[in-house]
Design brief:
Elements: H1 3-17, H2 21-32, E1 38-39, H3 40-47, H4 51-63, E2 67-72, E3 75-80, H5 82-103, H6 110-124
Antiparallel strand pairs: 1-3, 2-3
């Protein structure tokens, strides 16, 4: 596998880790608390996720380097790993910008647009 392919696989694994409702909610909450993060109990309380389930989700996110954890006394603080998230999102942006640029075409004539609309409506019926 080339380095580029390895990076794509790594990013796919990161997206997969965030690909469940609870994990995405966890990420959104941690991003809203950035850079300080939140104590595990506060995450669970805010999202209504039982401790054992939350532990599983946080471990998966930590294994993909999407969250950081630090211990302060008896508390575990979780925070979003902004550096990793920037790389992940940045990996998509150049491709998205290129795709948008390449997809710009001359507008369809009004008659063609009307035909497309009629075809779409007939498929819905």
């Amino acid at each position: 596998m080339t380095p580029a392919e390895e990076e794509i696989t790594r990013f796919a694994d990161m997206f997969s880790a965030m690909g469940t409702g609870p994990r995405l909610r966890i990420m959104r909450l941690l991003l809203s608390a950035h850079p300080d993060g939140l104590v595990v109990g506060d995450i669970g309380g805010e999202l209504g996720i039982p401790a054992s389930t939350l532990s599983h989700h946080l471990e998966k996110l930590k294994n993909e380097d999407l969250v950081k954890v630090r211990r302060e006394g008896t508390y575990l603080w979780y925070s979003a790993n902004a550096e990793t998230l920037q790389k992940l999102l940045g990996s998509c942006m150049p491709s998205a910008a290129h795709a948008i640029t390449q997809s710009r075409r001359k507008p369809l004539p009004a008659s063609a647009s009307k035909d497309k609309h009629q075809q779409w409506n007939s498929k819905r019926s």
